[in-house]
Specification:
The protein has 246 residues and is an alpha+beta fold. It is 46% helix and 23% strand. The model has no long low-confidence stretch (mean pLDDT 88).
Length: 246
């Protein structure tokens, strides 16, 4: 997955309008609450919670809102289910839709309806596993860091790749080293803008502008569903497509 494709996604999130930002906050709060309920409320000892909190901070979520989401863990977590859907969209685009829901039937119905309405095909679980790989993706403001020295610092922690995109480092880690790289950044006194486990496609698909925008509109339709947390796909999102969707 090319660096600027990942960066395009971040730019779109950063440029979200108030309505989109409010919806994103709701999803982040849900992730924080579930992470805290699963692994405990101590950020330093709970990798999933650490990532969720970092993502919330990166979106300028107030500290008291984050703390309230953590405090809700004991009360609101029991009804949440994690569901993953795999399928194909038009023009050969593959997609994963990861959800957190308190109503399985609602979520299944909503996700299936989008696939059917937009000419897609909902597949069986595991059908795309050989086409994607789970990796850690961390974005960090460059600041005064020297790129070469910074990359050397991270090698022992297990970093796979460090790319400089505009004023941000995009750090890629294997799944098993995601936690150790986060700890290394913490030791260095660095606070990431975001830290996520993502499904990275083995091969990207390039589409003409009009078709790429059509796919991105379907992706946004999935993302607009309150139960959908993350949508992963193998479309190469160019800067032009990202700007057209802004």
């Amino acid at each position: 997955m090319s660096g600027h494709s990942k960066w395009s996604t971040i730019k779109r999130k950063k440029g979200a309008n108030d309505a989109k930002r409010g919806k994103l906050f709701t999803k982040l709060i849900k992730e924080i609450t579930v992470a805290a309920s699963e692994g405990g409320t101590e950020i330093d000892s709970n990798p999933r919670l650490r990532s969720a909190v970092q993502n919330a901070r990166g979106m300028n979520m107030p500290k008291d809102t984050i703390q309230r989401a953590i405090n809700k863990a004991d009360k609101d977590n029991s009804s949440f289910l994690e569901l993953t859907f795999e399928g194909k969209l038009p023009n050969g685009i593959l997609v994963y839709v990861d959800c957190l829901t308190d109503n399985r039937n609602r979520t299944v119905g909503n996700v299936r309806a989008i696939f059917n309405k937009r000419g897609g095909e909902l597949g069986t679980n595991g059908s795309l596993s050989y086409m994607f790989e789970r990796k850690g993706i961390i974005s960090l403001a460059k600041g005064e860091l020297d790129p070469d020295e910074f990359q050397l610092e991270l090698i022992d922690a297990g970093v796979e790749e460090v790319e400089l995109e505009e004023d941000f480092f995009m750090i890629t880690t294997p799944l098993e080293d995601f936690h150790s790289v986060q700890l290394k950044l913490q030791e260095m006194g660095l606070e990431p803008e975001s830290a996520e486990l993502q499904r990275i496609p083995n091969d990207m698909v390039d589409l003409p502008m009009e078709q790429a925008i059509q796919i991105m509109k379907i992706i946004e339709e999935f993302e607009d569903d309150d139960d959908v947390q993350v949508v992963s796909h193998n479309l190469n999102v160019t800067d032009e497509v990202s700007e057209a969707m802004a």
